[in-house]
Amino acid sequence: MSLKLFNSLTREKEEFKPLEEGKVKFYSCGQTIYDDLHVGNARAYIFWDTLRRYLEFKGHNVRHVQNITDVGHLTDDGDQGEDKVEKRANKLGIEPMELVEDQIERYFEDTKAVNVERQDIVPRATGHIHEMIEYVKKIIENGYGYEIDGNVYFDVEKFAEDYPYGEMANKDLEQLKEEAQARVEHDDRKRNQYDFALWINADESHLMKWSSPWSEGYPGWHLECSVMSQKYLGDEFDIHAGGKDHIFPHHPNERAQCFAATGKGQANYWLHNEFITVEGEKMSKSKGNFYTVRNLIEEGYSGDAIRMYVISSHYRSETDFSKDGLEQAEKELSAIRSTVQKIRKSDGNDLDLNESPEDIRDGFESYMDNDLHTARAKQFLMEKVRLLSSALSGGDSVKDEYADVLVELFGVLGVNMESDVSKTESEMADTLVELRERFRENEDWETSDYIRDRLSELGFEIEDREDGAVWYR
């Protein structure tokens, strides 16, 4: 079986073939680090983490790079507006880098809570200003950039004479010209309004700025990912991923800069996730209609449930957020973990499901190979959980291999299915179940029922068997 991914560049589902057999170079656009992680942001990072896990499951050695944007991302995409980090820092009355340091720490706490593994390299934009300046010099030297009043712009029309520009968004220059007139504020310094900034001359009030041959200023947002991706993965690599809103203008601009500076267009496969909506509108900080991962966990939802909820839809399908969905995910987690524990505590005789653990693994892989279809893969696994649970309820016992494959495959989806019972809790449950058995032997049903009810309140289920009682979380 071979993995197929929908390539936004060609708008087709293509068989994935890495440039180097057995190795995958993977770049995903990361967080602009000015506020807490909301579920819409987390959806992207969860899916790209799942892709990495699945590639590793398939036997690839993956190098995953994901940036942190801590300068240059403005409040609109037309090279105008305020820097998002500075704007937020000013509102809080603190230095921009003070905000950034705090938010980076919170970001990693939040991504860890939803089981996103830390990427191999997490470069910060402010740590690569020198490389960005040198990159802009190359673009100018190659004839694709021009400087006016300390600002450097990318000449889209000149570039389009030599390379494809709007193919990812399926737009030609005439369309871009019309859209730019409606989308961005007019800038007399640009040769064409669809040109975009490589370097911006900062005004006196702007705090984050650096010396360059053109001005005291800061890099354009699009420039950052071009420089950091090619620095750590080479001029050509395998996968570049981001949100649907990056299909234009961010990723076409990134790609154009790379061609202009190096003659290479970054990645072979471009992947984009759809948004989470709230009552039909995109979840976003600017609209204020967002739920942060941190707040949801404080409300009592688990990180595993958030992850389970996210993977229950395909990464290219839009999904509307609901707490009912999170509660359903919590119930699914409980059912799966209970089934895994019951298999572990059964006597291990083989149950004939007409499917071996290897068959289950193959079925899971067939869905994941179809453009990382986590929703169908999860649904497939849930069907096996229901079959196993039904068999166990009927008194059958199951080999540990079935528990092992469930834990393994849900682990590929990034959801932990092993029991979350601590050693102390386990010892407590063992002691109380043993006490309950003694009261039952003495026919003290009232006390035995009392112990059972108290354990139930703590989340433990008791199952009475011929050979004695066992507990499950």
What does this structure look like?
The protein is α/β, with parallel strands linked by helices. The protein has helices at 39-57, 84-92, 96-113, 129-141, 156-160, 173-183, 221-233, 250-262, 293-298, 303-311, 323-345, 357-368, 374-393, 400-412, 423-441, 445-457, and strands at 4-7, 12-15, 23-28, 61-66, 145-148, 151-154, 196-201, 210-211, 216-219, 236-243, 266-273, 276-278, 281-282, 319-320, 461-465, 468-472. It folds into three domains: 18-273, 3-Layer(aba) Sandwich (Rossmann fold); 293-412, Isoleucyl-tRNA Synthetase, Domain 1; 423-472, no CATH class. It has 16 helices and 16 strands. Strands 5-6-7-9-8 form a five-stranded antiparallel β-sheet. It has a four-stranded parallel β-sheet with strand order 4-3-10-11, with helices on both faces. Helix 4 crosses helix 8 (250-262) and helix 15 (423-441) runs antiparallel to helix 16. It comes from Candidatus Nanohalococcus occultus. Zn(2+) binds at residues 29, 225, 250, 254. Residues 16-330 form the tRNA synthetases class I catalytic domain. Its cofactor is Zn(2+).
Describe how the helices and strands are arranged:
Blueprint: E1 4-7, E2 12-15, E3 23-28, H1 39-57, E4 61-66, H2 84-92, H3 96-113, H4 129-141, E5 145-148, E6 151-154, H5 156-160, H6 173-183, E7 196-201, E8 210-211, E9 216-219, H7 221-233, E10 236-243, H8 250-262, E11 266-273, E12 276-278, E13 281-282, H9 293-298, H10 303-311, E14 319-320, H11 323-345, H12 357-368, H13 374-393, H14 400-412, H15 423-441, H16 445-457, E15 461-465, E16 468-472
Parallel strand pairs: 3-4, 3-10, 10-11, 12-14
Antiparallel strand pairs: 1-2, 5-6, 6-7, 7-9, 8-9, 12-13, 15-16
Helix pairs in contact: 1-10, 2-3, 4-8, 7-8, 10-11, 11-13, 11-14, 12-13, 12-14, 15-16
